[in-house]
Each structure stands twice: as structure tokens, then as C-alpha cells.
Amino acid sequence: MTQKIGLLGSDSSHVEKFTEILNVDDHPAYWPDSGARVWTIWGEDPQRTRDAANQGRIPMVGSSPEQVVEQSDMVFVVARHGGLHLDHAKLVIAAGKPLFVDKPFTQTPDQARALISLVEKSGIPMTSLSTLHYGSDARVYGKGLMAASPVRYAAYIGPATRLNQYGGIVFYAIHPVELMLNFHGVDVVSVNAVEGRTGADKSNINATCTYGDGTLVSLGLIGDGTPGFYMMGVGRDGIVEVPGTVRDYAANAPKADNYENGMRAILSVLRGEKPSDITHEQMLRAIQVCSAIEESLIRRAPVDPRTL
Length: 308
Fold this sequence. Notes:
The chain is α/β, with parallel strands linked by helices. 37% of the residues lie in helices and 23% in strands. The protein has helices at 13-22, 46-56, 65-70, 85-95, 109-122, 136-148, 170-184, 258-270, 280-299, and strands spanning 3-8, 36-42, 60-61, 74-77, 99-102, 126-129, 151-159, 188-195, 204-211, 216-222, 230-235, 238-243.
């Protein structure tokens, strides 16, 4: 029996990516044996929602978030703005249905703590993640880090801006932040951020994240430059470097398969086949680190993300 997936939110490009994998049977990324289909969708913009449904071959446009939850076996919360995710997730949790929360998990640490508490009390399967670290490039990079270990310095670069309309820095900075936490753990004790041109339409941010064991990780958040992803780690036995993590920004970049691999991981968790490899602590820490970057820029001082 094919499981019905409902989407809450229609403004994210992930709607297109997820439906290519699950619905569009003539797309190269289509997964014929997924056992799941995106069945219904609701979004705040009716026209955009209809367009997304037509493009993604989604049979039903829901009249409300509640109707989407009712008509689905599992629900993906995919609105771009993380500030909407807690309220949308509450409907799913109340219905006792498996839940995926797209990045960013929430807008604030308090929202993250509230969502995690509700999930833990309900016992429903839930995961939240950036698909980046499921890509083949990231897996190769992870193996390289292990071979070069111990690694005490690393750098992750990705596009981000404080001025975007979907919640500021957290909306896209979540990608390099989640890569950092995935490869180096959650024990970030200090975040110190500087911005190249404060308040400018286009500006770059560098955030130095210090771990309890002395590891330093540099996050390059690019608002004024080529929007690409890059990973680099320096170990005692070598340097590991992997560009082109998610998108084909260069003609010779390898095929990105992070969405396909990520979907397999998501469905495995929601079906109860295995626990999420992203812990609740990691979900919270990602939002705390993003908040600490903004707070550090405001204070012009290092911030302990665990205090937020």
C-alpha cells in the first residue's frame, strides 16, 4: 500500500525536489519502489500552491493545514520560514502522525525546545535535517576526515544573508552549520562572528566556532560571492577537501544525489525502520548556533550557543 505524504508549505524548492523523487515517474530522480507519494499540499499562497501541485503531480490541494494532516499518513513541514514550523508541527503531533520538519527546524531555540518536547511526549517518529550530508560527496568527505583524524580545524562555506525574508541568517546558514555538527559533534562552546559590511545588501560573514576540545571550525556565510558549498578539514594525517557539495556550480562537479539519499533516510525514520541519525540535541544545537551567529554580530563578542 502506498503511503500518502502531505506537505505543509508550498514556497520551498524542496517541494519540487521531493515530488521529483516520489511523484514524477519520468524524472531521472524518480524512486519507483519508494512506497510513498506526495498526496496533498497546502500553502499560504494559493496560486503558488496550485502551481506546485501541477508541477509535482500532487493529486489534492488542501483547503487548510488541518485537511492536509487528516488526508495524510505522514506529513512534511516544508515552509521556507522556520518561524512557521512549530505551529504546523503541532497539528501533526496532535494527530499522532510521523513528522518531517525541513530545515531550518525552527526560527528560535525556544521554538526548537518546544517542538522537541511535544515530539518526545507524543512518541511519534520525527526527523529534521538538511539533506547535504547524505550526498555522496559528503560521505566521501566524512571518510576522509576519519582517515586524517584527529581533525582540529575545518571550514564550511555556503550561501547566507542576514537580510533574506525567510528569517535572516538561519534560513541558509543552517546548511553549513548542520554539516559542522554532523562531522564534528555538538560540543560548540563559543561562536564569534564578524561581518564584512554591516547592513549592506550583499555582505559576507565569518563565524569561528570553538569546540570544547579546542577544535576550530570556520563557517563562511557568503552573501557577496558565488553561491556554492565547500568543505575542508585539516587533520594530523592530511587535508580533506570537497567542493561542489550540493549543486552543479561547475561543469565538472559530480552528480548531486543528496536529495535522493536524504529521502530514503527520512522515510526510513518515519516508517519506524530506524531511529534518526540526527539527535534532538543536534536539532536544537543547529538553531542555537545560528542564533549565536546573529547575537555575536549584534554584541560584537563571542557567544556560547548553549546559553540561548
